[in-house]
Amino acid sequence: GIQVEQSPPDLILQEGANSTLRCNFSDSVNNLQWFHQNPWGQLINLFYIPSGTKQNGRLSATTVATERYSLLYISSSQTTDSGVYFCAVEGAWSSSASKIIFGSGTRLSIRP
Amino acid sequence: DARVTQTPRHKVTEMGQEVTMRCQPILGHNTVFWYRQTMMQGLELLAYFRNRAPLDDSGMPKDRFSAEMPDATLATLKIQPSEPRDSAVYFCASGNPAGANVLTFGAGSRLTVL
Questions:
Q1: Beta A43-48 vs A29-37: how paired, if at all?
Q2: Residue B84 φ then ψ, to 5°
Q3: In terms of CA atoms, which chain B residue is nearest residue A84?
Q4: Residue B107: which region, alpha, beta or left (left: phi > 0; alpha: psi -120 to 50)?
Q5: Which of A108, B15, B26, B60 is the most exposed place for a label (fewest CB within 10 A)?
Q6: Nearest-CB residue to A100 (from B41, B103, B108)
Q7: How far is the first Cα of chain A from the last one, in angstroms, to the nearest whole number?
Q8: Does A98 contact B31 at a Cβ distance shorter than 8 Å?
């Protein structure tokens, strides 16, 4: 099945810094989503981005499907950005239709 | 505000007991997923459904876990008998029907098996 790798596994930054999180996947995808899990465990969908670029406030994401990677950018980090960021993908082949699997996440800690 | 509802939020039980977790997906969503997360680790896919039909439950220990969707408003995940290694947070998520399958997660059910 499709493999999803995220890097770095951990990231510690000062408030105000910028960060780039990466998601690599091993095969063609129909669907790629980014999630934030806050310190209370809630999972929030940030972006649906199978290709192209999207922006939402200080967050933006870019997926280059032909090269099988996606990037999540966080600018001017705030302490509320802390948590774990997950990338999730759905493979493009019929054998994996609707099957959405997650990477192992990047744990981001923003220091005040 | 549409949301995925999971019950119970917390469950503590003794080893060997049956545990049933329930999920009410967002009305109109046609895909439902069950994931397990241990110690803030990655999300492990246990099973998923489309239009109430199970598509894949290969992530579940078959001898003790079962997942069903008796109707469009209810998905259940059952563990019988439960074991201490089943202690985890179990998340349910549902996907919208517009082809994009954008997931909305419930708050999770935290299970502790003693």
A1: antiparallel
A2: -55, -35
A3: B40
A4: alpha
A5: B15
A6: B103
A7: 41
A8: yes
The stretches of B1-114 forming alpha helices (DSSP H) are: none
Cα Rg of chain B, angstroms: 13
* A2 chain-B contacts, CB cut-off 8 A: none
HSE-up (13 A, CA, CB side) for residue B10: 1
Q: What's the token pair of residue B73?
A: 């408003």
Q: What percent of chain B is modeled with pLDDT above 70?
A: 95
Q: How far is CA A64 from CA A72, B26, B44, B68, B103, in A?
A: 12, 31, 25, 37, 21
pLDDT bucket at A21, cuts 50 / 70 / 90: very high
Residues of B in contact with A97 (CB under 8 A): 55
**pLDDT attached to residue B40:** 57
